[in-house]
Design a protein that fits this description.
Blueprint: H1 3-15, E1 18-23, E2 28-33, E3 36-37, H2 38-45, E4 49-53, H3 54-72, E5 76-80, H4 87-95, E6 99-102, H5 105-113, E7 121-123, H6 130-139, E8 143-146, H7 149-161, E9 166-173, E10 195-196, H8 201-210, E11 215-221, H9 232-252, E12 258-260, H10 277-295, E13 301-304, H11 308-311, E14 315-326, E15 332-336, H12 345-349, E16 355-357, E17 366-372, E18 381-389, E19 396-400, E20 420-425, E21 428-433, H13 438-442
Bound molecules: pyridoxal-5'-phosphate.
Pyridoxal-5'-phosphate is lined by residues 80, 82-83, 101, 124, 186, 223, 226, 262-265, 305-309.
Amino acid sequence: MSYIQKNLFFFSLRKRGLAMAVNPMCDHNRLFIDGIDAVELAKRYGTPLYVYSEDEMIAKMREYTSAVRAYAGDGQVVYASKAYLNMRMARLVAEEGLWMDVASGGELHIALAGGFPAENVVFHGNNKTVEELDMAVRAGVGRIVVDSLDEILMLEAVAKARKRVQAVVLRVTPGIDPHTHEYLTTGEIDSKFGIALHEDRGIQAAYQISLCPHLDFKGIHCHIGSQIFEVDPFVMAADIMMEFISALWRTTGIAVEELNLGGGLGVSYTDEEEIPVSDYIRVMSQEVQAKASEFGLRVPRMFVEPGRSIVAQAGVTLYTVGMVKELPGGELVVSVDGGMSDNPRPMLYGAKYQALLCDGQKGRALCRVRIVGKHCEEGDTLIKEICLPEPRTGDILAVLVTGAYHYSMSSNYNGALRPAVVHVRDGRAYLVVERQTLADLVRGQRATLDDESDGYAKAAGGQS
Ligand SMILES: Cc1ncc(COP(=O)(O)O)c(C=O)c1O
């Protein structure tokens, strides 16, 4: 790493709420996360460990809120909790006045357990069950985003049974390619999500909702994908949605009060160029306003639903280096005590990361290394190639920008224990999720097939 690269690297670290104490005299660098020594955190809580800067998450939430206030008046920021959710996070989002997107009964449960107000919840999902819809209606969630004609009928029946009128938003697919990984694209017409706008399907669905006495049609929603680094696809989505709103009004007289344009703003993991939050909000709201005046419509209340861009850069994963192997050709393969079970993104999307040794270089030579996990898959690689001071067994390694879709996508593959989560706030570290234990791995399991295991007989009548 050249001098300039090194300094750029430290600069980007600082931008992320991390700081390196650099002593050039002894070339001894140490990673601090909002003032807390990463090596000390690893010692205290063990590894792998997810560490989050609350200041960083709060700053991002406020950046969104002030941009929405500035450009979209009565607009609302909805945090997409699939990116990262636990009870503490639910509380933090509530304190910042954001609404929350949940995509299952499980996420709804966590949000409510953390004290999140149900009326500010937006409930998503392409295959919500009757039980989940009932749970949401009973809890009094603010919006249910209906995703199919079947769901409209199902939800009407649920709301009727509960004697409630449920506010709903219709999810549609505007048919846009946002130029991101195919697994992160969700707004094309062959998407499994929402209702395509083609052949008046969107209009029919909205009309169907308007016929349901227990559903209150509030508006429409789209989410074109994730990790998007260009404004054009967002503007195009706003454009198409406004055209749909106009067509809906002209053909049915149904007015759209709310327009939810989803999330998807790209985040830099290595050196990608990000769109500033304020630019992203500004261009979309300007498009919505321009189209509203062109079509003679009232400007709908704009909702945005960011997930990744609020939490990604606030998170770091700490690992302990285990075995280090030198391959023919000199490449070093460095194994850490986690891998695809705490970070499946490299395997899913070919995601790239930066990493560093938390307790510096101590004059060690720089070398090219591959960082791999401990799982039984050759593809379990966290970073294919990175230049680091020669890592040694016992070092603490930090992989950066791991705040989004890591903890929430973690698994027990190979019997891995899901890591603990620590939040740092005002110079103190707080354990917000305990590390799983070996007992958690066998909780609810049975080794025998006796009566106690609830044996269910095959014969009609189901004798057990
Ligand atoms: C409906 C919906 N809204 C918002 C988001 C958040 O996207 P991102 O994390 O890219 O901001 C997602 C992510 O998949 C989503 O499916």
